[in-house]
């Protein structure tokens, strides 16, 4: 198979690239850091190809993805996380986060759709943070909720073309991004666990690949509670974090 992965210079994307390459698949790793991508390629030089571009640049994204050609699986992992300090509300943060997570992902999809193989998989990585109103996560959670909604709508519209749309909703995964967090991260898993969960979910045609199972189940159950109760639960979690 031919696999394209954005955000592949580190974290989940990097591990996915290595795992797919180790299984004999041809992988195109995408990201802004060419040196980091080259390091990934060095692990499997015959199986991995680098494509360095910024997904927020629509023209560069289109040019780079067009050069890759048809793919069987596209996993859109690239993302940005920033947390809001409501005492110093920064609208620019929302612009930065949505520019990468939502509009950058849409740039990739626009470039990919014309050249997808029949029965290709479009895999969009959102987050379990989309399920509840977590403290300080207005920009990040909002962007991931938007991505999940868009993916579900795309699932409807792309089904007649044979394109399978899948979402990935991770909990906390040990990556350079989460290493910067200064709060407790329950049930955090490593990138190896995350990669295998995603690969297995894609193979099984799961619509939403959520993990770890217990954490995702708890959050999904909480998300069906009345919104007033969701807010109270989130307030309690926020107080624990501030202690």
Structure description:
There is one protein chain. Strands 3-2-1-4-5-6-7 form a 7-stranded parallel β-sheet, sandwiched between helices. It has one domain: Rossmann fold. The chain is globular. It has helices at residues 11-22, 34-43, 58-68, 91-112, 138-158, 176-179, 191-203, 213-223, 227-242; strands spanning 2-6, 26-31, 48-52, 71-76, 116-125, 164-170, 208-211. With 243 residues, it is of the alpha/beta class. Helix 3 runs parallel beside helix 4 (91-112). Helices cover 49% and strands 18% of the residues. It contains 9 helices and 7 strands, in the order E-H-E-H-E-H-E-H-E-H-E-H-H-E-H-H.
CATH second-level architecture = 3-Layer(aba) Sandwich
Q: What would you report as the Rg, rounded to the nearest angstrom?
A: 18 Å
* Weakly predicted, low-confidence segments: none
Instruction: Please bin the fraction of helical residues.
Output: 40-55%
List the helices and strands and how they pair.
Layout: E1 2-6, H1 11-22, E2 26-31, H2 34-43, E3 48-52, H3 58-68, E4 71-76, H4 91-112, E5 116-125, H5 138-158, E6 164-170, H6 176-179, H7 191-203, E7 208-211, H8 213-223, H9 227-242
Parallel strand pairs: 1-2, 1-4, 2-3, 4-5, 5-6, 6-7
Helix pairs in contact: 1-7, 3-4, 4-5
At a glance:
By secondary structure, the chain is an alpha/beta fold. It has nine helices and seven strands; from the N terminus they run βαβαβαβαβαβααβαα. The model has no long low-confidence stretch (mean pLDDT 94).
């Amino acid at each position: 198979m031919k696999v394209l992965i954005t955000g592949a210079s580190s974290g989940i994307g990097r591990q996915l690239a290595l795992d797919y390459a180790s299984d004999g698949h041809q992988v195109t790793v995408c990201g802004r850091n060419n040196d980091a991508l080259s390091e990934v390629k060095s692990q499997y030089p015959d199986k991995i190809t680098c494509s360095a571009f910024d997904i927020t640049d629509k023209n560069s994204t289109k040019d780079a993805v067009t050069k890759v050609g048809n793919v069987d699986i596209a996993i859109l992992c690239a993302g940005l996380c920033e947390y809001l300090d409501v005492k110093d509300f920064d609208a620019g943060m929302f612009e930065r986060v949505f520019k990468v997570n939502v509009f950058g992902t849409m740039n990739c999809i626009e470039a990919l759709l014309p050249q997808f193989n029949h029965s290709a998989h479009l895999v969009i990585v959102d987050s379990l943070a989309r399920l509840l109103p977590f403290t300080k996560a207005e920009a990040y959670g909002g962007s991931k909720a938007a991505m999940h909604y868009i993916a579900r709508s795309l699932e409807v519209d792309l089904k007649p073309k044979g394109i399978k749309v899948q979402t990935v909703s991770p909990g906390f995964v040990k990556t350079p991004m989460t290493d910067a967090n200064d709060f407790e991260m329950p049930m955090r898993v490593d990138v190896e666990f995350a990669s295998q969960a995603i690969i297995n979910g894609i193979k099984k045609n799961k619509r939403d690949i959520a993990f770890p199972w217990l954490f995702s189940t708890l959050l999904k159950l909480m998300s069906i509670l009345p919104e007033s109760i969701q807010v109270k639960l989130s307030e309690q979690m926020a107080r624990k974090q501030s202690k």
